Amino acid sequence: MSQVAPNNVKAAKALTPAMQQYQRFKQQHPHCVLFFRMGDFYEMFHDDAKLAHKVLGVTLTQRTEGVPMAGVPYHSVEGYLRRMIQAGHRVAVCEQVEDAAQAKASGSVVKRDVTRVVTPGTITDESLLDEGQENPLAAVVFHGPARASAKSEIPNPKSEIASIAWAELSTGTFHVATLDVDELIDELARVHPRELIYCETANGEPPARVRQLADTLNCSLTPRPAWQMRQEEAVDQLRKQYGVAQLTGFGFEEDDLALAPAGAIVHYLLETQCLDVNSNSKLETSNSKLSHLQPPRRFVRNDHMVIDQTSLRSLEVERTLRSGEVAGSLLATLQAGSSCVTAMGKRLLRHWLCYPLREREPIEHRQRVVGALVDDARFLDELRDALDGVQDVQRITARLAVNRATPRDLVALGRSAAQIRQLERMLADRPTVAHYHAPVDSLVEPLESLANQITEACVEEPPGHLRDGGLIRDGYDSQLDEYRNLQRDSHDWLARYQKELIDTTDLPSLKVGYNKVFGYYIELTRANRDKAPDNWTRKQTLKNAERFITPELKEYEQKVLSAESRGVSREQALFAELCELARQQTVGLHRFAELVAELDALGCFARRAVRHRYVKPTIVDEPVLHVDAGRHPVLDELLGEQFVPNDVALGTAVSSSDDSPASSEEASANSKLETRNSKPQASLALITGPNMAGKSTYIRQAALITLLAHTGSFVPAASATVGLCDRIFTRIGASDELHTGQSTFMVEMTETANICHHATDRSLVILDEIGRGTSTLDGLSLAWALAEHLAQIGPRCLFATHYHELTALADEYDNVTNLNVTVREWQDQIVFLHRIAPGKTDRSYGIHVAKIAGLPQQVVNRANELLSQLAVNHEKAPTPAARTKAGSSAKRDQLPLFTEYVDHPAIDALRQVDLTQLTPMQAFDILRQLREQVEDAPDA
Ligand SMILES: Nc1ncnc2c1ncn2[C@@H]1O[C@H](COP(=O)(O)OP(=O)(O)OP(=O)(O)O)[C@@H](O)[C@H]1O
């Protein structure tokens, strides 16, 4: 943001002292909009003012000629900050840091300083944050080819690598990872950063790949000086931050590339919070650093099921595809009704959906708690009650760490910490969740003591800020009580003084009063004003009255006012003491917050299971997916009884997990599925069926059930056995990625390529209408080849398609089966039954759906006409069987689909020949030419 800087000494001198200050701060924060406090307003100048006018809609005026200015009132600054941040801007808030009256008295300009820099990824204020969403800041550093890293986790040593770090200032979590550059976008999509910092470039523009990341992630970009991302600087910064000589204690050697972005993150956080980047935390008090920022933890990709950004999007895990809204997503559905009761639980739930587990044991651990809650309705209610009173302890602790906690935060923290006792009692009685009891029990004493101290000191309804005091209870501090008494007595004193003056002056209409601007005064009516005694000093003239002050009243005024300001200072000191007490419990508060979040998210799973008839899936190691009467979690809720449940049977039947109480029921369900499915060992199902029949719904439902099962949640089905998955891949729908310069078809093929390269026999792949973005022949060929490829690799795969020719693959591959979605034809109409059945179909009813959608009748009629002609040609076409064999590399026969569209030119030529007009020689000649033509053909 360019500013009009004084470009010579003369110009600098022409600026007022306040504007000189403004310029100085602006130069220190060139990438920020500067909110410059002037009295009751934050003013912005030059380009910042124009931007504020555009983004905030505030009036653009001029301070002096040629200096645009816009302002926002100080008391509503948070709302304006929020809008600036939402629009992706950074704001430096410059406050007056001394009393304006004092500065005036000493004849100098009031002292100012930038007290905070608010950026999209470094927000801590409650009003600027969404309680259910994490708000991470991420940093990326590109390192070139992988061989640069001795200990990289990168599978392909030739690929280019990058390291990323992400931290959440509002909670203190901090992670790092080193990845193949191709994996960056998928991991960053799960992190969902609000702001991405990168190494600044010579031309001031972000590199193309950084810009592309930001566009895809919809986050703001912040350049940082290159030196902050150098390995040595970064390591040094991290050592200082954690007050350690080495980082090995955190699991990092100093040449670990993941430390480069981590160091840059710490530097940036300290800078935006206006904390000293050079201090060593061992030497500092706990609030002069980011005391709540946890040491970086290495993120290992394979610890969780991988869901790339395409799958996250197409499965509508967090947002819907079409509108991009949270409403209608899986997350919103889980939240609705049976929602978590704490903000921390809500955030954890989102995290669990984006990072499903990959090992059986931790999944079953969560299932056991959900099961215990499902079986014990009283426990579920009690848990809800105990957690209901817990506020956002994570974020309050973070605000304490960066010195931005409010009186309300402190009181909320006290109330939340007090809940620990209720939680402990509840867990003590429940052997099924005994493992939670010990950690909760160990927190009871310190947290209860903190809660008691806060409750003893603070009023129940605290003010939003401490400008006027009002937080500390009467009787808590004798010094504060003394100041308060002085103020409270002022009423009586004034009444006494007024009576005294009336008696001595004999002016019964005389009044003694107070106002904020002029302080204490004696008021005489206009008629009496000349009767004022000589020792009264005139203070203010009003229309109908005159106001005076006496030395006695002046002295009293000073005493009361200083008592008021001393009282506020005393309250601020007591508040700071209580904050420090709370800061000393940071570790315990974090642990408490984690336990609360976990129990809350599990409670949400349990409530959903109870209310929506979800069942515990049996988790097995074998690559299977067997679902009996499964439902789509979102549509099920929308359609209720009208939703038609369907089965899924992929992979050979397995024995159920030993400790599953539902194992016998599930085993019988599995056998039912096997008999229904003509090929019990099939891992790939081709699903054909009319448009609108429910193919997409069915395959998504299978993926969502798999995903939910890996989070530890119960699933919407009558029973389910889910084999552990390493990844879920999806290729659904068509979306243009114009900002990345890719066409719809290119996106489709890029996603398909990703599946081909990475799917394993442990993956789940769902594919919807592959190949529809290009010509029929190209599309069908691609779909065919892909289906063959997947049949050979062997992931569990559901492949919805309108290319009915693909169903022939079931004859060639033992592990490929056909399913179709049934419809009933009735009086020239079709009825969608939404029921999946074994076997194939050869009709799409596309024209029927087009008619329902309102296509003009003449277009529908013509389409029907054309369809009849094409169908005749289709039937006449020769249909040699495809003789492709699984695993065979032999050349494959041309498939029927090609012959039905393209006749050989020799056949066309034959059709043209009029036999009645030919001599035997001419006939022989034509025969010879045709023979040559056939011999010349490439595949002859
Ligand atoms: N199992 C079901 N029970 C009830 N309604 C369903 C079911 N499955 C799908 N539907 C309804 O049918 C509509 C169309 O479903 P879906 O998009 O899955 O069809 P499709 O076969 O994939 O269609 P197309 O081939 O045109 O893309 C859904 O929006 C939903 O309203």
UniProtKB/TrEMBL annotation:
* HAMAP family, per database record: MutS
- Could you say which residues form the signal peptide? none
In the record, the note on similarity to other proteins reads: Belongs to the DNA mismatch repair MutS family.
Low complexity composition-biased segments:
653-671
Q: List positions binding ATP.
A: 689-696
CDD domains documented for this protein: ABC_MutS1
Q: Which UniProt keywords apply?
A: ATP-binding, DNA damage, DNA repair, DNA-binding, Nucleotide-binding
Which named protein is this? DNA mismatch repair protein MutS
Q: Where is this region: Disordered?
A: 653-681
Functional description taken from the UniProt entry:
This protein is involved in the repair of mismatches in DNA. It is possible that it carries out the mismatch recognition step. This protein has a weak ATPase activity.
Taxonomic superkingdom: Bacteria
The UniProt record lists the DNA mismatch repair proteins mutS family domain at 763-779
Q: Which PANTHER family match?
A: DNA MISMATCH REPAIR PROTEIN MSH1, MITOCHONDRIAL, DNA MISMATCH REPAIR PROTEIN MUTS FAMILY MEMBER
Keyword Cell inner membrane among UniProt keywords: no
A Pfam family annotated for this UniProt entry: MutS_II
Instruction: Enumerate the InterPro entries for this protein.
Output: DNA_mismatch_repair_MutS (IPR005748), DNA_mismatch_repair_MutS-lik_N (IPR007695), DNA_mismatch_repair_MutS/MSH (IPR017261), DNA_mismatch_repair_MutS_C (IPR000432), DNA_mismatch_repair_MutS_clamp (IPR007861), DNA_mismatch_repair_MutS_core (IPR007696), DNA_mismatch_repair_MutS_N (IPR016151), DNA_mismatch_repair_MutS_sf (IPR036187)
What SMART domains does UniProt report for this protein, alphabetically? MUTSac, MUTSd
